Amino acid sequence: MERIPASDAVFNQTPPLADYNLFTTDPALKEAVQREGAESAAPELTLAGAALGTAVNFEHARLANRNPPILHAFNVQGERIDSLEFHPSWHVLMQGIAARGYHTSPWARVDGRAATGAHAARAAGYLMQAQVECGTLCPTTMTYGAIAAMRRDPWLQRDWMPHLLTREYDARDIPIGHKRGGLIGMGMTEKQGGSDVRANTSRALRCADGSYRITGHKWFFSAPQCDAHLVLARTDRGLSCFFLPRRLPDGRRNGIYVQRLKDKLGNRSNASSEVEFVDAWAHLLGAEGRGIPTILEMGTYTRLDCVTGTAGMMRQAVVQAVHHARHRQAFGRLLIDQPLMQSVLADLAIESEAATALAMRLARAFDSDTDEEIALRRALTSAAKFWVCKRGCELAAEAMEVLGGNGYTEEMPLARMAREMPVNSIWEGSGNIMCLDVLRAFGKSAATRGAVLHALTPALGRHRNFDAAFERFAASVGAGTLNEAHARRFTQLFVTLMQGSLLLNAAASVGARAAAEGFCATRLDFEAGWGAVFGTGGAALDVNAIMDRAWIEN
Ligand SMILES: Cc1cc2nc3c(=O)[nH]c(=O)nc-3n(C[C@H](O)[C@H](O)[C@H](O)COP(=O)(O)OP(=O)(O)OC[C@H]3O[C@@H](n4cnc5c(N)ncnc54)[C@H](O)[C@@H]3O)c2cc1C
Q: Model's pTM, two decimal places?
C-alpha cells in the first residue's frame, strides 16, 4: 500500500505539555505562599498542583470550551424551564473546584470568619485552577464573593449557608434545602448602563410579608444556572441589593426568564445570559437604598479573583512558551538559546512573577482585618485589577507568538487564553472605572495614602530606579494633584512600584534577585524609558538566572 509521506517523518515539533505539578514547578508561587501566610496549605496545594496538571484535566478544559452550554428555554411540552445544558467536562471541572473548596473555603468556619491565611491559600489554588480553565471560575468567584455579602443575614445564614459551605458540586435545579452544594451569581448590568449602575431601572416592590417582587431585566447575567443571584433593583429609597433565588422557598420556579445566551469572544464554556424578571420573589440584603455598598462587598472579592485568575493564565502562558522554546529549533539552534527569544521569554517570566507576587500579596490583605491592611486593599484591589488584566492581554498575545502558528490554533490552550484575558479586564469594573476608583481611594482616605506609602518603604535603597519612581509617586500623592485624565498613569506607577517592592523584598535567591532587578530596570526606568513591547529589556536582564527560575520541569 502506498504510504502518505507527510505524516511519516514529523520532527522538530514540541511534545505536548501535561502531567506536571503546577505548584512544585513554580518557585514564584511557592515562595509567595510562604511569604503571605499560607505556608500551612503547601501540602494541600502540592496535591492540587498534581491533580490539576494532568493531560486529562487539560482535555476537559478544551472540551468544555469547544462545546459551549446550550439554553433550553422550553421543554418538549412547551413549558418554560430555562434549563442549561453543559458538556460533561464542565461538570468534571466544577466538581474539582468544589472538592478543593475554591468557591467557599475561606468562609467555611463555624463562626463565619476566615482562618489564618485562608484567602491567600485559596488564591494560590485559584491561580493554579486558572491555568487549566477559566469559564468555570465565573460561578466559582461569584459564590466566593457573594458569601462575603450574605454571611451577616440571619435567614441566609440558617437556610442557605449549610448548603453552600460544602465541598460538593450539585448541579440539580431543585430547592437549596435539598442540595449538597450550591452556587451564587450576581446581576448588576442593565442595557442602559453597566459601569454606571445608578442608571438601573429594575424595580422592587415590598410585600406585606417583608419579601419583595422585582420586575425588570439584566443585560449580563452570568451563570444563570446558579441557585441564586445578588441583584440590584430600585425601591423608593434608591438602589438596593436583593437575594434572588432560582427556586422559591416553596420549590416553585422564580420569575426569572433567560432570554438568550451571549455569543462571546472567549469564556465560551461559561453561560452568560440576558434575563427578564417578572414579579420575581426577592429577599432584601442589607439596608434599602444601600445596594451599591452591599453588592460591592462581593465585588471586592471578585476583583481580587480577576487579578489572581489573570496571574494564573499568565503563568500558564509563560510555561507553554518556555516549554516550546526548549524543544523547537529554528536556524539550527533551539529557540531557548537564541538571544532575542531569551529577551522575550525572560521579560514574560518577570511579568508573570510580578503578577503572582502581587495577587498573593493582595490576597493576604483580605486575610487581615487591621486598619492598615483594609486601607491598603481599598486602593490596591482596583489598581491591581486594572494593571494585571491589561498586562495579561499583552502577555498572552506575545506568548502565543512564541509558539508560532501552532500557538494560534485551537489545539493549544494559548489561543483560548488570549480570548479569555480581556474579559477579566472588562467585567467587575473595566479599566477606566478601576483607575477612577483608585483616585477616589487616594483622594478620600489619608489612611489609604499612609498604608500604601508604608507598604512601599521597606524596598527603598534596594534599586536606584525604584527609589526614583517612589519619589515621583510620593510627590504626586502628597501634592494632591491627581486628576482623571492621568488616572491610568498614576495607577500604573502605583502598581509597578508595588510589584517592584514585592520582588525586591523577596529577592533571596539568584533567580529571584534577577527577576527583581530586571523588573526595576525595565518597568521603573523613567530615564531611558521602558519599551512598549515585551523583549525590549535587552542587556538589563540576567536572562540565564531568570530562565533557570522560570519553570522547573518535573
Ligand atoms: C462575558 C461577560 C460576562 C458578564 N457577566 C456579568 C454578570 O454576571 N453580572 C453583571 O452584572 N455584569 C456582567 N457583565 C457586564 C460587565 O460587568 C459590564 O459589561 C462592565 O461592567 C461594563 O459595563 P458596560 O458594558 O455597560 O459598559 P459602559 O459602562 O458603557 O462602559 C463602556 C466603557 O466606558 C468606560 N467608562 C465608563 N465610565 C467612564 C468614565 N466616567 N470615564 C472614563 N471611562 C468610562 C468603561 O471603562 C468602558 O471601557 C459581564 C460582561 C461580560 C463581557
A: 0.97
Residue 295 CB less than 6 A away from ligand 1: no
Give the torsion through C-alpha atoms of 44, 48, 51, 54, to 10 deg: -140
210 vs 45: CA distance, rounded Å: 45
Among 229, 270, 258, 246, smallest CA distance to 86 is for 270
CA-to-CA distance for 508 and 96, rounded, in angstroms? 34
Nearest to 102 by CA among 355, 308, 268: 308
* Beta strands at 228-235 and 184-187: parallel, antiparallel or unpaired: parallel
Any atom of ligand 1 within 6 Å of the Cβ of 509? no
Distance of CA 33 to the CA centre of its chain: 17
Which residue bears the cell 487549566? 132
State the cell numbers at 544. 540565564
Distance of alpha carbon 469 from alpha carbon 257, whole angstroms: 52
- Asked whether the beta carbons of 283 and 155 are under 8 A apart, the reply is yes
Pairing outcome for strands 272-285 and 238-245: antiparallel
pLDDT 10s digits, 453-504: 999 999 999 999 999 999 999 999 987 767 899 999 999 999 999 999 999 9
Distance, in Å, from the CA atom of 185 to the CA atom of 282, rounded to the nearest integer, reads 14
Residues 223-249 have pLDDT tens digits of 999 999 999 999 999 999 999 999 997
pLDDT along the chain (554 residues), means of 10: 66 94 98 97 98 98 98 97 98 98 88 77 98 98 97 95 97 96 98 95 98 98 98 98 94 97 98 98 98 97 98 98 98 97 97 98 96 97 98 98 97 96 98 97 94 98 98 88 89 98 97 97 91 86 93 80
Establish whether residue 440 lines the binding site of ligand 1, counting it when its CB lies within 6 angstroms of any ligand atom. Answer: no
Task: Report the separation in Å between the CA atom of 186 and the middle of ligand 1, taken as the mean of its atom positions.
Answer: 14
Q: Identify the three-state secondary structure at position 110.
A: coil
Using the 8-state DSSP alphabet, how is residue 60 labeled? H
Q: Is residue 186 lining ligand 1, measured as CB closer than 6 Å?
A: yes
Q: Cell 452591599 sits at which residue?
A: 294
CA proximity to 282, closest of 321, 255, 252, 314: 255
- With CA atoms as reference, report the closest residue to 301 among 524, 431, 143: 143
Pocket test for ligand 1, best of 189, 198, 265, 382 (most atoms within 8 A of CB): 189
How many angstroms separate the CA atoms of 61 and 96, rounded?
A: 12
